[in-house]
Amino acid sequence: MSRFLNINWVKDNLNNIEWSSTVDVMLSWDDAVVYVKDRNCRLPSVKELQSIVDYDRSNPAVDIDFFGDTKLNEWYWTNKQRVGKPEEAFCVSFVGGCCNAQDRNGLKYFRMVRDI
Predict the structure, then answer these.
(1) 4 within 8 A of 11, measured Cβ to Cβ
(2) Does a cis peptide bond (omega within 30 degrees of 0) precede residue 60?
(3) Domain ranges in the chain?
(4) How far apart are CA 41 and CA 24, in angstroms?
(5) Is 78 helix (H, G, I), strand (E, B) or coil?
(6) CB 25 within 8 A of CB 111
(7) pLDDT tops 70 at residue 42
(8) Angle at 53 between CA 35 and CA 111, to 5 degrees
(9) How many angstroms from the chain centroid is the CA of residue 113?
(10) Looking at residue 4, what is its pLDDT?
C-alpha cells in the first residue's frame, strides 16, 4: 500500500491523518488555529509537517504529486508554541525543510489535518 492516497484530502497512512491542500490565505498563528478548529481539523505537529518534507527535492521540498499546491519560499504553521516564548510558534519551510520558531502575529500559510 502506498503511503499517500489522494482523495480530495491526502491520506497519510504512516501518520494516520489526512492532509488538506494549502489553505490559500495567509493568517497569523492564532487565526489559523481558529480557522482549522471551526472546520473540525487542527494544525499539524512539527513532526507531522516535517514528515512530508522530501529532502531529495527543494523549493518545494515535497512530493508534488500529492502536495503540488505548496507555496514556494513560504513558511507553514505547526500547532506547537515555543516553550518559554509563547509569542512564537514553530513553522516549517518547504524550500529545504527547516523548522524555526517565528512570531505568532506573522502571516503564514498552513495545511489542515484531521485524524483518521
Answers:
(1) yes
(2) yes
(3) 4-115
(4) 16
(5) strand
(6) no
(7) yes
(8) 10
(9) 8
(10) 60
Start-end of H helices in the chain: 29-37, 46-51, 64-67
Give me the residue label for grid cell 481539523.
41
Gyration radius from the chain CA atoms: 13
| pLDDT single digits (tens) 78-110 | 999 999 999 999 999 999 889 999 999 999 999
- Residue 108, C-alpha cell as written in the block: 503564514
Architecture field, domain 4-115:
Roll (3.10)
Write out the H or E segment, with its range, that includes residue 6.
strand 4-7
Report the residue count for the chain: 116
What's the confidence (pLDDT) of residue 58?
Answer: 86
Query: ∠ CA(59), CA(65), CA(67), 5° rounding?
Result: 55
**pLDDT at residue number 1:** 52
* Dist CA 93 CA 40 (whole Å): 25
